[in-house]
Amino acid sequence: MFVLQLGLIGLCIALLPLSWVWVKADDNKFRKLVWVTTFLTLDLVMFGGFTRLTDSGLGCPDWPGCYGTSSPFVAHAQIAAAHLAMPTGPVSMTKAWIEMIHRYFAMAIGVLIVAQMVIAWAARIRRRSLSVSPWWPTALFGLIVVQGIFGAWTVTMKLQPIIVTTHLMLGLALLGSLGWLAARLTPLPAYEPDAGRWRAAALAGLALLIAQIALGGWVSTNYAVLACTDFPTCNGAWIPPMDFQHGFHLWRALGMDGNGDVITQDALVAIHWTHRTFAFVVVAYLVWLAAMLRRYESLRRPANGVLLVVVIQFVTGLSNIVLQWPLPVAVAHNGGAAILLLLLVMLNFRIACSRPGRAVVPARDAAPA
User: What molecular functions are annotated in GO for this chain (predicted)?
Assistant: First the structure.
């Protein structure tokens, strides 16, 4: 019964953006729905970072509900008892609400993707073009199902770092895929033949960013942000004592090494130092790439966005160390990574389409009247 209640909550939340899309004066409501879903998925990724950074991942230590109910209101007695037994533990009413709000919005995103899938297949059956295959939203639905499975494992496996990091990367994969679909449905700027020669360089930039985000997720899920408390050195040394073997042992419990012992400070330093050092490589490459791509009119706006967000990421990353990991800055750093991913996806799409015969002009809305 409570699973049905959870589904109804997700549906009710999704009805708000669905209604807004429907009443807006736009001749391509499917495109608007995709863009709205992309924006809300970005918000969900940021709120997922907030959930992790506030230690709310086990605010409700079961899944998909909260102590077998659909709401912390109903589970108030169980939450109060758990908090009384362990006041500094992972369960409190505030953390339970943070965790459940994250789950509610994840379900709402699922509903929006189901709506895209239904509209796309209905258009295919009625032979009305959406300028995109219905397999796109179908693949997105499959991706969000896998994401939900890892969300469940995040809770049931007690925040195991590799599971939490994979959950984060799948969320960003969903965001990037939605961004690519939204770009396909949006008219492209004027064709610029020379931009196509930057295809490999742009893909390399995206690959570097994905690797850096994965390293950042590994830092966050292992709580290694404060393993180095100074900058530019790490604990007073350019190359401090580090334990890479245990720091990057993937399959292990939170706070433990591969042997089941408490993870050492040297292992946490190895995690932090690797992310910090690789950041210089990524920042230098993306600044160079964006500076080169600014010469093209069709790529100037996303390239400028990359330059701006890279600077913000560097500042927020440094502030996390100097200011001892303040929550707003940490959330902004997570959100900046997601925005940077979207911008690079947009750049890669425009470059991929910068050759004759690849201009994408969306058809009029094929949604049922």
Answer: metal ion binding; oxidoreductase activity
